[in-house]
Design brief:
By secondary structure, this protein is of the alpha+beta class. It has one helix at residues 61-75; strands at residues 8-10, 16-25, 28-35, 42-49, 53-57. The protein has one domain (8-75).
Length: 76
Amino acid sequence: MKLQVGEVITLSNNEEYVCVAFTNYKGSEYVYLITASKPVKVQFAKVTYQDQVHLTTVSDPTEKQELLKLFTGKMQ
């Protein structure tokens, strides 16, 4: 199973997020997620595919800034 843009997923915090975009950063795949309900929250997560899709949310502020630049450039 591979995530796709527009797909709705539920994270471990039991909130639903929509996959907005994907990008590669330092050799890994990342996804830009926004909540499916208000108030809108944004998450970036590293994607790995094992037996199932595994997401690791990004918590490092510097990494978040770099990912935001990459995603913003893709959406313009």
